[in-house]
Here is the input.
Amino acid sequence: QVQLVESGGGPVQAGGSLRLSCAASVRSFSNYAMGWFRQVPGKERELVARISSAGSIYYEHSVQGRFTISRDNTNNALYLQMNNLKPEDTAVYYCNAVGRRDYWGQGIQVTVSS
Here is the structure.
């Protein structure tokens, strides 16, 4: 059973920073590709950033240069450092693990005010 718990969201002003964390209760965490997705009402969930088990990283174009994804395989944790936040980054952010199937956290709200 895989459990993912996000933390670190909340309100922030434009230009500010937040660091999201995802605590993963899973065996062999290092074998999972991990990612952050986000969703706003009325739109599909979209990939923000992904890090493979080997450490390869992908960023969605709009967050390149502002967001940094990282993982701590020793502590079964995933992070998303978000800098220079913009109002359009407002969304519910989800932690994702890819194993035999996709696993999801419960989501955490990030609200960026102008």
